[in-house]
Automatic annotation (TrEMBL):
GO terms for molecular function: phosphoribosylaminoimidazolesuccinocarboxamide synthase activity. This is Phosphoribosylaminoimidazole-succinocarboxamide synthase. Belongs to the SAICAR synthetase family. InterPro entries: SAICAR_synt/ADE2_N (IPR028923), SAICAR_synth (IPR001636), SAICAR_synthetase_CS (IPR018236). Pfam families: SAICAR_synt (PF01259). Residues 4-250 form the SAICAR synthetase/ADE2 N-terminal domain. HAMAP family: SAICAR_synth (MF_00137). PANTHER family: PHOSPHORIBOSYLAMINOIMIDAZOLE-SUCCINOCARBOXAMIDE SYNTHASE. It comes from Microtetraspora glauca. NCBIfam families: PRK13961.1, purC. Pathway: Purine metabolism; IMP biosynthesis via de novo pathway; 5-amino-1-(5-phospho-D-ribosyl)imidazole-4-carboxamide from 5-amino-1-(5-phospho-D-ribosyl)imidazole-4-carboxylate: step 1/2. It is an enzyme of class 6 (ligase).
Length: 282
């Protein structure tokens, strides 16, 4: 196999028959740093979750999954996929306002060119889900928001409309399923690409805590930052005096204590089990 690329969390290979092998590691990132140590089973949990969602979304959009029959060393945390020609747009849907969306809103009342009503705060639910695409930034740079007009310029009006429709459909379906299980899907990013037949296909990973914000429904309270389902303990510890780390410094963060690692693992397992109704066997 040919090694193609390693991101912060995943490694990509190409097989001899031209398929893509996406391997999820246990690496975890926060505040743009990859932390040490990893979270045991995270790669497997996110891979299984993504596969489960691909199935739930099968009638919304076709996907790139070919099989989970992968070399033993990657078992459970890798997927064989069709290689797509990726659309050069990060397709984001938001049902709630936070993060970069909130920053843009506070500055000009607009997120990716979409005007929002006044009076919204951190964690507010939006009147309806919105499509807030962004550029695919090269490694080490941040994605920039794109207006819908910029997407049209990039891919044409027909494709732009299809990207918007699919992204919102995936969000709405995902949010519905998550809510029944006590989880708010605040926002999510999907990636679409063209297959050999010229069809638009869902690629990458889908509706995982790495590509989405999941909040426990019972703790939702607009007006503050929401507890998140995955990295809350990690973020809290890193920003606490206990870690001795200054987020604004150039220093890499210190190693995570065992207890934070274990509680974070529990959180990922809980998200997986709540959403899928399955028991995670790691
Ligand atoms: P990071 O996520 O760490 O910010 P990254 O996005 O470069 O960096 P990964 O997410 O690990 O790293 O990389 C996955 C890459 O594979 C992305 O560029 C994504 O667009 C691409 N990709 C996903 N699915 C497919 C597919 N079916 N065919 C071709 N490329 C794909
Ligand atoms: Mg990525």
């Amino acid at each position: 196999m040919k090694h193609l690329h390693s991101g912060k969390v995943r490694d990509l290979y190409e097989t001899e028959d031209g398929l893509l092998l996406m391997v999820a590691s246990d690496r975890i990132s926060a505040f743009d740093h990859v932390l040490a140590p990893g979270i045991p089973d995270k790669g497997a949990i996110l891979t299984q979750l993504s596969l489960w969602w691909f199935e739930q979304l099968a009638d919304v959009v076709p996907n790139h999954v070919v099989s989970t029959d992968v070399p033993a060393e990657f078992a459970g945390r890798a997927v064989l996929c069709r290689k797509l020609r990726m659309v050069p747009v990060e397709c984001v849907a938001r049902g709630y306002l936070t993060g970069s969306g909130l920053i843009d809103y506070r500055r000009e009342g607009v997120v990716s060119g979409v005007s929002l009503p006044a009076g919204l705060t951190d964690g507010s639910r939006l009147p309806e889900a919105i499509f807030t695409p962004s550029t695919k930034a090269p490694i080490g740079q941040h994605d920039e928001p794109m207006t819908y007009a910029q997407v049209v310029e990039e891919v044409g009006a027909d494709v732009a409309e299809r990207l918007r429709r699919i992204t919102l459909d995936v969000y709405v379906r995902g949010a519905e399923i998550a809510r029944e299980r006590g989880i708010i899907l605040a926002d999510t990013k999907i990636e679409l690409g063209w297959d050999a037949e010229g069809e638009l296909v869902l690629g990458d990973e889908v509706l995982t805590p790495d590509s989405s914000r999941f909040w426990p429904l019972e703790e939702w309270q607009p007006g503050r930052s929401q507890p998140s389902f995955d990295k809350q303990f990690v973020r809290d510890w890193l920003t606490s005096p206990e870690s001795g780390w200054d987020k604004a410094s150039d220093e890499p963060p210190p190693p995570l204590p065992d207890e934070i690692v274990e509680r974070t693992r529990q959180r990922y397992v809980e998200a997986y089990e709540r959403l899928t109704g399955r028991v995670f066997r790691g």
